[in-house]
Amino acid sequence: MSLSNTSFLTSEQLTRSEIDQLFQRARLFKSEYAEKKTIEHLVKESHKILALVFAEPSTRTRMSFQMSAAQLGLRVAILDNPSVASLSKGETLEDTVRNVAAMQPDAMVVRFNKDADAEKALPELSCHIINGGIGTEEHPTQALLDAYTIQEFHGKVEGEKILIVGDVLHSRVANSNLLLLQKMGAEVAYCAPEAFVPQKEQWKEVKSFASLEEGVKWASVIMGLRVQRERHVDQGVGLSIAEYREKYRIGGDQLKFFAKDGILLHPGPVIRGIEFSDYVLSEPRCKVRDQVTNGVFVRAALLSFVLGLEVQGA
Ligand code: CP
After folding, report:
1. How many Å apart are CA 294 and CA 107, to the nearest integer?
2. Would the CATH topology of 11-138+293-306 be identical to that of 140-288?
3. Which of 96, 131, 279, 309 is the most buried (most CB within 10 A)?
4. Is there an atom of ligand 1 within 6 Å of 59 CB?
């Protein structure tokens, strides 16, 4: 397993068989936790230290890493409020991660804006690094939990038709998902307004739908994305939220055309009424909360590999 005792920065790193091993371990952790409310007993060595350095806001990624670390018996040190860190005194993020690494955690989960340049420091750090969401580049642990959720509900990822809807241009989640889902044999397409059409090379050959209704009819899985308004500030997008909602919000009218056994995903945070309607969020086909639950176990499995923990049973 190439993930053992190493960093995890991109979905590209994983082979099909490694994804299978990771998901097998996540399933073991999830079923064990459901039965016994603990997985700590499955892990032999659990005194390692995980640092979390989050220079952008997060609820799901940060807390699920904390929860999964707790389940594995790891100790966690967190820097997640830049205003009370020495960043506020002028230290760069690049130097901040160097200094946290100098404290010798066993691994560090990082989240920051690509523009912060902190990525430059990552290769030289002495601990394993896990990408917890870097700018508009990648968010590979989100892609893993998305693929795991698809497999959980549809029994497979291969052959699934995944429609990604919305702000694809600014979405690190979409980038990581495209790499991972294609590797797992899914067909990926997107539906986005002109302002949010992805420009990276990896998207050039990807199918796109001008009509949301046509895309919904085609899909077995719909993945909504958050409209990333904080990333529109500098360039502007020439599209109002009202215009976006009018054409791209998924509501009951669109779901009339969606497969009865289809599922709806969203990495969160969902901005109600803009990406999904309240009705969609209460629909049985909407698996957003399942994604969040699965994130804990997928991240626990990932941490166990990255930290080289010995796990009984998987
Ligand atoms: N999906 C995701 O990254 O959510 P958070 O920003 O809350 O971590």
Report:
1. 21
2. yes
3. 131
4. yes
Fold category of 11-138+293-306 in CATH: Rossmann fold (3.40.50)
> What is the identity of the amino acid at 219?
A
* pTM across the whole model: 0.96
Q: What is the pLDDT of residues 85-140, one digit of tens each?
A: 998 999 999 999 999 999 999 999 999 986 567 888 888 899 999 999 998 999 99
Phi/psi zone of residue 268: left (φ > 0), alpha (ψ -120 to 50 degrees), beta? left
Query: What are the domain boundaries of the chain?
Result: 11-138+293-306, 140-288
- DSSP category for residue 43: B
CATH architecture of 140-288: 3-Layer(aba) Sandwich (3.40)
Please answer whether residues 118 and 85 qualify as being in contact, where contact means their C-beta atoms are separated by less than 8 angstroms. Answer: no
State the Cα–Cα distance between residues 47 and 196, nearest whole angstrom: 44
pLDDT tens-digit readout, 267-294:
999 999 999 999 999 999 999 999 999 9
Strand order in the sheet with 207-208: 207-208, 187-191, 161-165, 221-224, 263-265
Q: Is 66 near ligand 1, meaning CB less than 6 Å away?
A: no
Evaluate: CB of 177 within 6 angstroms of ligand 1: no
Distance in Å, CA 109 to ligand 1 centroid: 13
